[in-house]
Amino acid sequence: MENKFLESSEFYNSKFNNFSTIIIVPIAIMVVLVFFMSLFMEKEVSINTIGIIGNYGGESTAVKHSRGSSLSSTIHEGDKLRAGQIIGWGNKNRPPIKAPISGLVHIDPNGEVSIFTPIQFARKLSCSMYLRQKDLSLVRRNQSIRLTIQQNSDKPIIMNGKLRNISVVPVQSKNGPEYNAIGYVKVNKQNAKRIKYGMNGEISIISKKETYFNYFENKLLDTRY
């Protein structure tokens, strides 16, 4: 009986030791590795909002017609103009005006004509956004921004750039005071074929980078207090 008891004890001891060696030790090693990695690996802390893309730098107001006059029927939304090309008038008593730059025509409801750089030739696009009052302390000029535009059945368009200006006076919205901010994003030829002026997407303003350890530590403290 004693021999059988000893044999069974040795069997269970060896089985337990094998279990601890195969399962517990690797898990412990993994936990230690993850802990040390969290001390060095960094996570981006960002503020998210909606951004609208527009023309960067090349926009030029060519002319604004007055009440009682109209633009010539030869000039339409989206027309291509060359620098120096004459913009005609329906009222021929008005002197002709030359387009100051080459680009595409945009006519707003008030009759103001703007000329935009064709987007396929653009290398930068402006990006307009609004920031909440509580986020202002984390935002400053020249921070990195990332614009993500989702499109049906296509992979998202991602463009990176910088934040340039933040207004000092807020505008009132249904969400409370908001501050207009302007930045730019860089666009390559492939992305330029898939986007148009006026498209919007999610803007991420990279406010800071911190280690994963500090990130989860702050989250834990925020939860407790």
From TrEMBL:
| Occurrences of domain LcnD-like C-terminal (ranges) | 124-209
Q: Where in the cell is it found?
A: Membrane
Q: What is its main location?
A: membrane
Transmembrane helix in keyword set: yes
The UniProt keyword set, sorted, is:
Membrane, Transmembrane, Transmembrane helix
Q: TM segments?
A: 20-40
Q: Which domain of life is it from?
A: Bacteria
State the name under which the record lists this protein: HlyD family efflux transporter periplasmic adaptor subunit
Its taxonomic path starts at: Bacteria, Bacillati, Bacillota, Bacilli, Lactobacillales
